[in-house]
Amino acid sequence: MLDINHLRNNFDVVSERIKSRNKDYPALKQFKVIDQNWRRLTSNIQNLNTERNALTQQISSLIKDKKTNEVNEVRSKVQYIKQEIAKLESELTLVNAELNTILYSIPNVPHKSVPIGKDETQNKEIRKWGKPRKFDFEFLPHWLLAEKRKLIDFERAAKISGSRFVIYREDGAKLMRALQWFTLDVNVKAGFCELLPPVILNASALVGTGQLPKFEEDIFKLDNGQYLSPTAEVQLTNFYANEILEESKLPLWFTANTACFRSEAGSAGKDTKGVIRQHQFYKTEMVMITKPEESYDSLEKMTTNAESILQKLNLPYRVIVLCTGDQGFAASKTYDIEVWMPSHGGYREISSCSNCEDFQSRNLMLRYRDNNSGKTIYPHTLNGSGLAIDRLWAAIVENYQQTDGSIMIPDALKKYFDGAEKI
Q1: Which residues, at least 6 apart from 139, have a Cβ–Cβ distance to it below 8 Å?
Q2: Catalytic residue, candidates 40, 105, 349, 362
Q3: Which site from 86, 229, 279, 308 is most exposed, i.e. has the minimal number of CB atoms within 10 Å?
Q4: Does the annotation mark 391 as catalytic?
């Protein structure tokens, strides 16, 4: 959620920047209208309080002068004003609740360094690493090669769970496990604290990170009102929710590998083949909680760490900065990392690293105490995939396949396969 006072006092500038996301946000207009009502109520309450205080002082003087009749008259006025204030304060409480509800529908403000653009076609490439492999044989997409090698089973997964599920089997399952361990090992070595959180969440945790109420249709909801986690970003960012940290604790770096669940609402017909877009998938997540002045340096560090995983696996990739029209709801700035996928003849997203500034920490009431002033400050929160494991699995199967249908094991993963050379 945005800082309501910043939006209130800089409405035109902030709303113009938000509109650069190339979407219509009626909540901005609603906010302005209701905020005018808030200003009117607040002003009236202040004026009435001033009048009441003046009359209260007048009563003291009248009592000293023993002017009983006038005292009673002024007291009646004070009582009437108190009733009016109570009515206005009750109305103000409802207006405040309405403003908070509206704020949950307004996305974060894009950082000034984010390029203006209408959609993904106007994202800007920052850099590339590695050269895509040129095959001297007819390569297979990962789903065909993996089924042929009995590394995955879609048919039996559908029998058990329905469409958009997969069972990894034998060396396919072992490769998944190796990638989970490997990504965690890289992150922990880089300084992240590993957690293993639950994947069933309360609604408040999802509201805190911005998934609710905006994206409810994309999240699996349980009968008891809880939800299946769409990303471990939620658990890691909520770890210190409703707490005040000492400044010395910052920065905090967390990582976790969990199963994630998304209904993929609105994605009918997209990536129906393979493991790119499943209802259940695995992801190693990174979260940073930093002081505001350090957050953009931290965003570069997080992105570099995610890139290092692909470099260690020798997988070609590129980094792009998302334009305003393609950014996520809670993000101020996002880098996408896209890995080379031969079956697509191009790059596919495998990580998004975002700085949410204080957008999430305000929702979460996550604060830290400044050493010098003693004031409580909202830290900046960052999140990124390090990496999306199913997509990483697919990239290795495709990029490391051999003419005989075997799959070479990247050097960085051989220790997880007891030194074996290939699958």
Answers
A1: 342, 343, 398, 401
A2: 349
A3: 86
A4: yes
